[in-house]
């Protein structure tokens, strides 16, 4: 996994609550068996005027000029600002693959849906939870996203530095922070505990033998 | 000993080791796999040279992409075909049990797990699908995971999981006429909001829940995720045990007796402390219909489309207006005046035998209205289909003008050929009414199976709760 340490980037403001994973990546793009190539179809139904389908060439697409990602200032944004309950709905990790493939590394919102939040850390994307009051203020500062608004996110320090120099702190679970900073593979870490797992299985087998058919 | 919640009991039994204060490495007893969220996980295993830790805990089937017109012959859509074929290939390579197309046991994973007895009380159950909460109806700690976690569970049989908060939802009273578990859960989501149960384990209890069949309990647990919950639970009772007895993967003989003895302890102790409690009076419920693009945007069928101007919060107001625009609805419209174009009876929420019986009871002797272009009935599994046919329900539907199909997810999310066209309106027994969920530009109204059947006959929503 790609480590995350710090970055400075423009912020794309997506002023909607309850953004669901069906909106992040519509189902027709989930037929892929790869992990890459989803970025062009991130927010497909909102981002383009024409209906999208897998394999449709980018040259045949008609962008929706009002959608935030189509504003010139937001094209290279690596930070997405959103409202409550971001990433709700389906568990599809394709939503993260699309966000990461597009180039987003940080998502800032007052709250996230649970599975989505977990999926972020598996894909080198940092979800930052800030109080609604601070989120309101960021949206107000950024406005319609046409002007330059660059924020520095530092995971080690757990801070967001705003253009006016103000610094906002955020919380992150110590274990997840460690994995993200070092780009650690979760599975390898768990396999280091293989003996614990085997010992557990032995205990469990005597308690609930029907779960361990010969 | 201090009284414990059902959640506490299940949680502590599965902790292999702690990782930090509130995160545990949990052991996984059952892993359900399907074609959409698994190919990248298997590919990850392959690239790392890893093999499944315990193949016998994994059960796979194809459900999301499969055609419902016929399960024989080739899948037309090349991308769907590739995903389904890839699942077969992966299961063969890694030695995993697969119910392929054409096998009577194939169906939606959340229907076939319980049906096979692959879901048992006291288990942890995971799948790369958010509606895995369904299996909590059996007092199993069941939750959806992402594809990286699918790979993690395949490789290690474990998963790091954050401890959840607990919410007890106590439902009491008799369900009024026309009101089902679906209406109960839609009402709950409306109260809690789509994030109200965020990160929670919700336990459903009370005499109303005790009185529900396993099918009804699964419907409740299935949709708890739409209130943001991670896990839903119902305690074990005689209904649970009766359902499981004799299922192919349930224990037998002396093991069955031993299992029942343990399973009966899978209830919250008297005096157990929950982080929050909620009381619902079932007697006050009405048949529900969603009007918007979030499962919390629902009203009783005798109500009206709400007016965003009555909403004080500006973010919510804008969201309501957006939903109305998308749904092409005017505030103040009577719900019973809304006229869907199509009807879909199916999905992991409502495609079990009891759901089909409820819909057939309404459809019997009737005729699908001329204004309804399609009324689709898609059983949740091959075995549900066979059972329904043995009871003659297929004839009831077909004679009334419904289409009787092969099992799969179908128009719940339209990854196969069953999807809404731009602007079409659908009364659906599924669980999500998000924009484009059933097809780009499609408009979804979530309802119970009985309501869906009534809409098919009448051409509009009907107050099935009103005295005839
Ligand atoms: S029926 Fe719908 S909600 Fe259920 S597993 Fe299939 S696609 Fe998901």
Report on this model:
- The complex is a heterodimer of chains A (214) and B (468).
- With 214 residues, chain A is α/β, with parallel strands linked by helices.
- Helix content of chain A is 31%, strand content 14%.
- Chain A contains 8 helices and 7 strands; from the N terminus they run E-H-H-E-H-E-H-E-H-E-E-E-H-H-H.
- Chain A has helices at 21-24, 44-47, 94-102, 114-122, 132-142, 174-182, 186-191, 194-207, and strands at residues 6-13, 79-81, 106-109, 126-129, 150-154, 159-161, 167-169.
- In chain A, strands 4-3-2-1-5-6-7 form a 7-stranded mixed sheet.
- In chain A, a hairpin with a 4-residue loop joins strand 5 and strand 6.
- The longest helix of chain A is centred in the C-terminal third of the chain and has 14 residues, at 194-207.
- The mean pLDDT of chain A is 94.
- Chain B has 468 residues and is of the alpha/beta class.
- Chain B has 15 helices and 19 strands.
- In chain B, the strands form 5 sheets. Chain B has a 5-stranded parallel sheet, sandwiched between helices.
- In chain B, helix 6 links the parallel strand 9 (165-172) and strand 10.
- In chain B, helix 2 crosses helix 5 (147-156) and helix 12 (353-363) crosses helix 14 (393-400).
- Chain B is globular and about 55 Å long.
- The interface between A and B is large, with 57 and 71 residues.
- Bound molecules: iron/sulfur cluster.
- Iron/sulfur cluster binds next to loops of chain B.
């Amino acid at each position: 996994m790609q480590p995350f340490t710090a970055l400075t980037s423009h912020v794309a403001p997506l002023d909607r609550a309850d953004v669901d994973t069906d909106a992040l990546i519509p189902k027709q793009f989930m037929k892929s068996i790869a992990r890459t190539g989803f970025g062009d179809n991130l927010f497909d139904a909102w981002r383009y005027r024409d209906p999208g389908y897998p394999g449709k060439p980018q040259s045949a697409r008609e962008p929706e000029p009002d959608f935030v990602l189509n504003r010139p200032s937001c094209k290279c944004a690596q930070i997405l600002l959103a409202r409550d309950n971001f990433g709700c709905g389906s568990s599809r990790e394709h939503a993260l693959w699309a966000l990461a493939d597009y180039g987003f590394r940080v998502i800032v919102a007052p709250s996230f849906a649970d599975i989505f939040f977990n999926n972020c850390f598996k894909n080198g994307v940092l979800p930052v939870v800030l109080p609604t009051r601070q989120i309101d203020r960021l949206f107000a500062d950024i406005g319609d996203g046409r002007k330059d608004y660059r924020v520095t996110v530092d995971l080690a320090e757990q801070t967001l530095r705003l253009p006016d120099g103000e610094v906002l702190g955020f919380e992150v679970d110590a274990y997840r922070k460690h994995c993200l900073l070092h780009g650690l593979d979760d599975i390898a870490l768990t396999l280091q505990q293989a003996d614990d797992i085997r010992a557990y299985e032995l205990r469990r087998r005597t308690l609930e033998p029907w779960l361990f058919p010969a | 000993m201090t009284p414990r919640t059902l959640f506490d009991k299940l949680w502590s039994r599965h902790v292999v080791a702690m990782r930090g204060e509130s995160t545990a490495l949990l052991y996984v007893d059952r892993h359900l796999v399907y074609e959409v969220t698994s190919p990248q996980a298997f590919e990850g295993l392959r690239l790392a040279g890893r093999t499944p830790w315990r193949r016998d805990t994994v059960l796979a089937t194809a459900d999301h992409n499969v055609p419902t017109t016929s399960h024989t012959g080739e899948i037309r859509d090349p991308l769907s075909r590739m995903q389904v074929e890839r699942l077969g290939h992966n299961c063969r390579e890694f030695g995993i049990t697969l119910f392929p197309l054409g096998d009577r046991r194939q169906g939606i994973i959340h229907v076939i797990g319980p049906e096979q007895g692959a879901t048992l009380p006291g288990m942890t159950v995971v799948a790369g699908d958010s509606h895995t909460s369904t299996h909590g109806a059996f007092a199993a700690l069941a939750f959806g995971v992402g594809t990286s976690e699918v790979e993690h569970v395949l490789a290690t049989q474990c998963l790091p999981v954050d401890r959840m908060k607990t919410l007890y939802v106590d439902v009491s009273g008799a369900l009024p006429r026309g009101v089902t578990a679906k209406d109960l859960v839609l009402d709950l989501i409306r109260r809690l909001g789509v994030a109200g149960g965020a990160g929670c384990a919700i336990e459903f209890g009370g005499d109303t829940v005790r009185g529900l069949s396993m099918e009804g309990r699964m419907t409740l647990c299935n949709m708890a995720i739409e209130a943001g919950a991670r896990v839903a639970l119902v305690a074990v009772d005689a209904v649970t045990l009766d359902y499981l007895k004799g299922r192919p993967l349930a224990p037998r003989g002396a093991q069955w007796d031993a299992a029942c003895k343990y399973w009966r302890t899978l209830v919250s102790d008297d005096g157990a402390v929950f982080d929050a409690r909620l009381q619902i009076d079932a007697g006050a419920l009405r048949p529900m219909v969603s009007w918007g693009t979030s499962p919390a945007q629902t009203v009783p069928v005798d109500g009206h489309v709400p007016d965003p101007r009555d909403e004080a919060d500006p973010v919510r107001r804008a969201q309501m207006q957006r939903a109305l625009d998308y749904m092409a609805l005017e505030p103040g419209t009577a719900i019973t005046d809304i006229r869907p174009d199509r009807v879909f009876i199916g999905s992991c929420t409502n495609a079990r035998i009891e759901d089909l019986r409820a819909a057939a009871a309404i459809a019997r002797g009737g005729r699908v209205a001329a204004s309804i272009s399609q009324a689709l009935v898609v059983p949740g599994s091959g075995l549900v289909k066979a059972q329904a046919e043995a009871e003659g329900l297929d004839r009831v539907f077909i004679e009334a003008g419904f289409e009787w199909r092969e099992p799969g997810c179908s128009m719940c999310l339209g990854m196969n050929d069953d999807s809404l066209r731009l602007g079409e309106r659908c009364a659906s027994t599924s669980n999500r009414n998000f924009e484009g969920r059933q097809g780009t530009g499609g408009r979804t109204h979530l309802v119970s199976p009985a309501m869906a059947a009534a809409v098919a006959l009448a051409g509009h929503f009907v107050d099935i709760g009103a005295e005839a």
